[in-house]
Amino acid sequence: MNDRREHIVELIQKHDKVYIADLTNHFQVSTMTVRRDLSSLEKEGKIIRIHGGAVAAQPLRHETAYQVKENVNVVEKKAIAQEAASLIADHSTIILDSGTTTLELARCLKDREGLSVVTNDVLIAAELVNSSVDVIVTGGELQHEVGAMFGSHTERLLQSIYVDQCFLGVHSVDTAGQVRAPSIEKAKIKRLMIDSANETWVLADYSKIGHKAFAHVCHLEELVGIVTDEQSHARHLHDNMVVAKMQEEGGDL
């Protein structure tokens, strides 16, 4: 990595975000040169490009491990998965995002006829090995703690497909109606999944509703609906929070 690129990384680490116009002025180089620098740094995993600039690569290692998450709200996750399974027609193609609730959904689909599943989760893929389901794994860099794949290979696969439905696992749905993820990198993958599907559903138990995680994924109005549990209704509908917001946007719950 050359000195200019090292300096760019230092600036991003210091300020969290930089803009191409500012870097062009700072280094007295062309916009094209800065774009090449940012592209190279993103491929190395040192930054994440955004519109007009770049931000620091958000580390994924701090996310709660699968072994911990799989034992949380088990009853709710199973109920959500069963409801979500009823939304899926035989002979359709779907995306299953990484997560413990989407893993439960995969378990509900093992005997379905003519179903194709695209996933970035090695645990979901393993669950469907001895099933009638066709499985397409995105590939990519593996996040060992949760079994999820991310990075440029994952992104390219998602950009090349179009499916009937997408089922997202999320870190939170906040009171402003924003679906959120624990990192910018994960938010980027989820955004690509949404763009690759005819319709998207979020699977979220009550513990995910009404909280604010780090990175924005989408707004509720971009979803067909949220599949959640009764505690979400009891906890938030009466307070005119996110469940009510979903109904205002015209989605299903």
UniProtKB/TrEMBL annotation:
A molecular function (GO) term: DNA binding
The species this protein was found in: Geomicrobium halophilum
Family matches, as InterPro entries: Carb_Metab_HTH_regulators, DeoR-like_C, DeoR_HTH, NagB/RpiA_transferase-like, Tscrpt_reg_HTH_DeoR_CS, WH-like_DNA-bd_sf, WH_DNA-bd_sf
Alphabetical list of SUPFAM superfamilies matching this protein: NagB/RpiA/CoA transferase-like (SSF100950), Winged helix' DNA-binding domain (SSF46785)
UniProt name for this protein: DeoR/GlpR family transcriptional regulator of sugar metabolism
Keywords: DNA-binding, Transcription, Transcription regulation
The HTH deoR-type domain, residue ranges: 1-56
Family annotation (SMART domains): DeoRC, HTH_DEOR
The keyword Metal-binding is assigned to this record: no
Pfam families, per database record: DeoRC, HTH_DeoR
